[in-house]
Specification:
21% strand, eight-stranded mixed beta sheet, single chain, alpha/beta, 8 strands, globular
Length: 249
């Protein structure tokens, strides 16, 4: 991870959901009354489960897909202040390497898998998708891997820590939103994904966003026309993908 992971903009809107529990994990939940069969779990970026932008996206997906959407706390209550997005001094003082060490795959993987299992096994949802922003990218690929059987679809935007072996193991319909400029999901890794996934026998939706950079889908600047159009297109793409896959009979 790098400085681009903690730069961006906070969005102005009031989340419509509520805070609750997913198993033993704190979570934001937003739903639509007419649906009790479809769930989506968002694995948030470094700003965590309280990040207003992520909750706004959750509300949108609940409406667009007709789903119950969960944003669990996978960082043990650690919250990066939103001011870090726009304050160069706060970004400079934030130790990304230490955060990444605290939230390694080994440390957070078990909790992420516990939350995914709870959606079908404990709460009884028939179809479950997962969306990962930045840090959450590697996690949705692991959850969607062969023989895991926890998810029906995944989507990720500008994934971090994703490896070719995780890409090669995916076994559910997969969507990737890739900006042109991304030090995490590099052109080389992007090319690997586009070479590997079409050979795996799963539905694949790759969407490229020219001119945009890492973080655009979760913290792009709504006042900038190009970024606003990109993040809106990204949100429509995720909602459409999840609706297409999860609402099938």
């Amino acid at each position: 991870m790098s400085q681009c992971c903690i730069a961006g903009f906070a969005w102005d809107a009031e989340p419509q959901g509520k805070e609750t529990k997913l198993g033993s994990i704190d979570a934001y939940i937003t739903d639509t009354p007419e649906n009790k069969d479809i769930a989506i779990m968002i694995i948030a970026n470094i700003f965590g489960w309280t990040f207003n932008n992520t909750r706004i996206l959750a509300d949108r997906f609940a409406k667009d897909v007709g789903a119950t959407v969960f944003v669990p706390d996978f960082y043990d209550g650690e919250v990066v202040p939103e001011e870090t997005l726009t304050d160069p001094e706060k970004r400079k003082g934030f130790d990304i390497a230490a955060w990444a060490a605290r939230n390694s795959k080994e440390n957070r993987g078990p909790t992420i898998f516990e939350a995914a299992r709870a959606l079908k096994q404990d709460l009884g949802f028939k179809k479950v998708g997962a969306v990962g922003y930045c840090y959450g990218g590697w996690a949705v690929f692991q959850l969607g891997a062969k023989d895991v059987n926890l998810l029906d679809a995944i989507s990720t935007a500008h994934p971090s820590f994703l490896t070719p072996s995780e890409i090669s193991a995916v076994a559910v319909p997969t969507q990737i939103l890739a900006p042109e400029h991304d030090p995490q999901f590099t052109p080389e890794l992007r090319d690997k994904a586009n070479a590997i996934i079409p050979t795996l026998g799963v539905e694949y939706d790759f969407q490229f966003f020219p001119g945009l950079a890492h973080g655009f889908a979760a913290s792009g600047d709504r006042k900038d026309r190009r970024q606003r159009e990109g993040l809106e297109r990204g949100a429509r793409a995720v909602g459409g993908w999840m609706a297409e896959i999860l609402r099938r009979e």
